[in-house]
Every structure is written in C-alpha cells, then in structure tokens.
Amino acid sequence: MASPSFPQKNGEPLAVETVAGLLRNGSLHEAGRAGVAQAAQHLVSLGLIETATAEYVRCVDHRDPDYRYVRNRSCRGRIRIEDDADDDGDGLYCPECDRKVYPRGKTRCRMMQVEVKPDGVAAFLEGLLKDGGVEPKQVYPWVWRVDTPRGEARLVVADYCGLEHVCRDWAAANRACYVVVDAASCKTRFLPESWLVWTRLADVVCGSASVTDLLSSAAATVPTSQVRASVPVYSATVRPVVLSASPQEPDHTEQPQQRPGKTWPDPLLHTVAKCWTTKDGTFGLSTKTQGRYDGKAEFARDTIQAKLMQLVCYQKWQEQLAEKERERQPRRSFEMTKLADFLAEIYPDDMVAARRDAARGDAACLKALLKRFRSLISDIRTKKLEPAGINPDILPALGIESSIDTGLSLRVAHVHYLDANSPEAQEASVDPAKLDYLRRDELA
Ligand SMILES: [Zn+2]
After folding, report:
1. Domain coordinates of the chain in residue numbers?
2. Are β-strands 78-81 and 92-93 bridged in parallel, bridged antiparallel, or unpaired?
C-alpha cells in the first residue's frame, strides 16, 4: 500500500516516514536535516502543523569540552537555549538526567519542534472528502458520516475521538475508517483483525492512501461474525504529547479539550510490570494491562528518574515477598517505605539539610524538596510512561496533601524482574551482574 515517497510540484519527493515523524505533536527534529525542512514546509502549507525553531545543546556531546566530565554518557537529553538568555553563566538543567549543564562552549544545533494543529487536521480531511465529491457530516467530535457508492461509513480520527468510537462493536456497526495522526507504533495499537480499516495521516498526505477509497471499502466491510462487546480496536494510550513553549516546562493549559484522557483499569488489579537493568546500566520497565502489552520505558543510568523507578519497583517486590511470608507467619507485618526514605535516597544531601532545618522549626527546605519530588514523579508520568503507552497511575500522583509519611510503591498487581536465563533477558541484553538490584537487601 505505502509508497515510499510522494512527488512535490517542484523539487525532490518527500519521504512518507519523514512526514509521519513530523506528524507527532511535540516532536523535535534537526532543522537542517535533508528533507525535513521541505516536508515540514509542506505540512505547514496544508495547515496540519506549526513549527518553532530554537537552539539546543546536547547534554552529552563528544565534541564538547565538558564531555570528559560527564558521568552518565548515555543521557540523550537536549537542553533548549532560550533566545533571551544572553548570559548562560548560571547553567541549565538537563530535562532527562537533571545534570547542571553550562551551554557556553557547547556545540549548538538548531532543532525544530512540531505542534500538530487538530483543527487543521479536521479541515484537511474535510477538504479531501469534498474534493473527492463527498459531503462529510460531522456526527460527533472527530467522527464524520460519509455516503460512499457502497453505502454509509464513518471517518474517525483515532487520536482525538471519544473512547466509545474506538470500540470494536461500534467500529463494526458503523463501518468505521480510522485515520491516525501520530502513527508511532500504530500497528500494535489496532486490533490485528483484517476487516478493520485504518491508515496513517502521513499516507493520506503523501497520496499512498486515499480516504475516499478506504471509506468505500469500510462501507462494504463485513466484520467477522463474533463481535465481542466493547473491545477497543485502537489503544488510545499514546495520546500525542502537548507542545510547550519550553520543553522543560510543559504548559498543560494548551491541551485541547477534545482529547479525552485515556481511562485505564485500576493498575493494582489489572497491570503487571517487568523490570530489568541492561549492561549499560539502563533501567527498563514494561507493563501488560489485562494481558495486553502496553509498552516499555527506559531510564538512563545514574539518573534520578532511574533511581526512583528502581526504588518503587524494589518496594513492590518487597511487598510481594512479605505477602508470601505472611502465609507462613501471619503475624509478620509489613511497613510500606515512606516518602521520607525515598527523599533520603534520591536527594541525600538536600534531605539531611532539610531535616536539620525542620528540627529547628524551619520546614521551607523540606517543602521545596517535596515539590521537587512531585515534579520528578509528574515528569516520569507524563514524559516517560504515557508516551510509552504505560498507565501513568503505576506511579502515584502525589497530591499537595501528601507528606513525608506517605507510603510509596509501584502500583501494580505484580512486578517481576527479568532473570538472566529468560530469553527476554538476552534480547534486552540484561546484565546478569546487575540483575540483582532488586535482591540487594535480601542478600545483605
Ligand atoms: Zn542529561
């Protein structure tokens, strides 16, 4: 179906994968890369995206003078240089590893950040149908009814529509044809059933898929007879991330209301997690919800994000051990590790200072530390777990009312860590020496 490129009126053909990459909201692209600027310009002219270009430095860049001092060379963080920052003497924090980076003297690169315009997507699709001689009627947000020569069908934008419109029974009854804007791993997000009609917006833009043809075949589709009730045909977990003025401070108010948050089943009942440490020290975690694979998130070695994830996984694992133990010794109690212990592990020096101040009656330091910890959790939830397709609620969203006595653990039904002997461990190049992170206390 897919042709690798589409001809432009003037100039080189553009790669469909480049277009697909650019249709990811919030994504960063090297502005100078061949084909990218051209494809972006085309998408801007279609009203599908807007772009903003800014200068960035890489946290880790072998060309930079600070390279030899960097301890965590696996960090992929990029730090945006604000236009008005004429004096960078204060340093900036890497959004990935929290390292303080001094941009002066570091190699700069121009990066383009994409903002997908949902209204533009709607206008583009409606325009295409009208050009094809079809009059679309919008019946729900992001759902249009269309009459085709072979009958009625519905055009649905899977990224933005309501969850009821990605249910299998609805799709079958309404002859739906889905268009996916952010097409990252969309193959795994649709039910693998041949009657389902869907395409990527990139393929539509590049002309390798025709919406009118697809709607026509959706109208004539005969779904397999056993329609189970309300199974989602499309896992909407990977909602596009929202573009922010600065990647370090996402502006959540910009989120369009049409995008409903995914409703997840309670992870404590329905989600199982797997975790591992690879040879290069990366901490990995993947989850399954109700037996279906959600996704995988990785945390670079020696980062505070990795540390936090290791700690909550370890905590959950300890709970499981205690649970087992209770079968033999029912009276043995298990105490959940408190937030204070996490703070002491993650910010050891600051926590010592905060405790000292608190003992003198000054809680400001502790409050600031709690705030920092909350934003660390919120970062992992929104920038790591959600984009990976993992239920963010496996990490508790710490509210203002949470105190240093709040217990903290990975909120899943079960966690297990990859064993050196398991085939998956080999795939993930798990380091047998580091496998025992979760077992360290048991051995101690
Ligand atoms: Zn970094």
Report:
1. 6-116, 119-219, 267-443
2. unpaired
Which spans in 142-266 are helix H? 168-174, 186-189, 201-205, 211-219
pLDDT surpassing 90 at residue 47: yes
Residue appearing with tokens 């502790």? 366
pLDDT, tens only, 140-198: 999 999 999 899 999 999 888 877 788 777 888 889 999 999 887 676 677 777 788 89
Instruction: Note whether 438 and 314 are within 8 A (CB).
Output: yes
Q: How many angstroms is it from 372 CA to the middle of ligand 1?
A: 17
* pTM greater than 0.90: no
pLDDT of 395 strictly over 80: yes
Q: How confident is the model at residue 257 (pLDDT cuts 50, 70, 90)?
A: very low
What's at 202, amino acid-wise? A
Banded model confidence at residue 434, pLDDT cuts 50, 70, 90: very low
Distance from the alpha carbon of residue 74 to the mean position of ligand 1, in angstroms: 8
Q: What is the crossing angle of helices 339-346 and 348-359, to 10°?
A: 130
Task: Give residue 319's pLDDT.
Answer: 80
If you measure from the C-alpha of residue 55 to the centroid of ligand 1, how many angstroms do you get, rounded to a whole number? 16
Q: CA Rg, the chain, in Å?
A: 25
Ligand 1 center to 45 CA (angstroms): 35
85, pLDDT greater than 60: no
Say how many Å lie between the CA of residue 28 and the centre of ligand 1.
16
Phi-psi region of 361 (alpha: psi -120 to 50; beta: other; left: phi over 0): left
Question: Nearest-CA neighbor of 37 among 89, 282, 45?
Answer: 45
Kindly indicate the confidence band of residue 234, based on its pLDDT and cuts at 50, 70 and 90. low
DSSP bridge pairs for 198: 178
Closest CA to 98 of 366, 356, 405, 350: 350
Q: What is the dihedral of CA 328, 332, 337, 338, to 10 degrees?
A: 150
**CB neighbours of 187 closer than 8 A, spacing ≥ 6?**
none
CA of 95 to the centre of ligand 1 (A): 7
Rounded Cα gap, residues 189 and 82, in angstroms: 36
Strand partners, 286: 274, 296
The secondary structure element, H or E, covering residue 22 is helix 16-22
